[in-house]
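Please, does this match?
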Amino acid sequence: MPDAIRQKILKSIDDMPSLPLTALKILRLANDINSSPQEMLDTIKVDPVITGKVLQMINSSYFGLSANVTDLRQALVMLGANTVKNLALTSALLNTMKSKGSGNDRLDLDGLWLHSLATAVGAKIIARAADLPRRQHDEFFIIGLLHDIGRIFSFQFLADEYVATIDKATADNLSIAEAEQEILSMTATETGGLLAEKWQLPDNMLNGIKFYRNPENAGDFEKICSIVNIASYFASIKGIGWSDGLKISEPSEKTLEVLGVSLSQLEDPLQIMEDEIEKAKSFIQE
């Protein structure tokens, strides 16, 4: 049975739509050290859907800008090319992933997106509390938002099997990763990694998705994965969004050491988490 489910997963990933041509061009430009902000701007502008969503996000209360941004050139000046690029990629990914609902009433897809948003907000707050460079904060936000695309995929294409996975974890006192491996033949983070590879996402996003549960396996991306791991933990213990109902494991000492923080040190900075989530809801709204 697991082999059959594995084949179903691989076929469903293969059948997933590719990213829009605009998003693929953005990725190519992002990886080209000789590309210019103007080239990025010209590429995004040809896709009115992505442009509209980027402007919606930028004008949300999350960014708290003093003036309404009406065009991408203005956005580029106010927020920088890297933030605009990340927002454009996020828009394309959300468009691709939000086109289908959950296939089982026990799985709350909107709730899982809310958990992802809480993780994104938490990742940015933790990066700030750990005194990491300001230019990286939005990067951590985006990776936090996308970290659970493997489970989002499972909710959409393997809903009944994922419910069986949760039941297996509960009945046999397994971690969700152990149960995923047993029932689905691969973990949700592995599935997310395969999606990230299909979409040719940058290495920081790919590794953040693939290794956030086990940051120690992420090599050069251990710090990114540690931040997402801790942020996801806080989203879960605060009860924000959907939860699988299983025991919530604390981040490992090694994960905390990588950032040079303790859980108690993060409690005060994360007090603003729910207010920040309210400001950021435009990221997951249609």
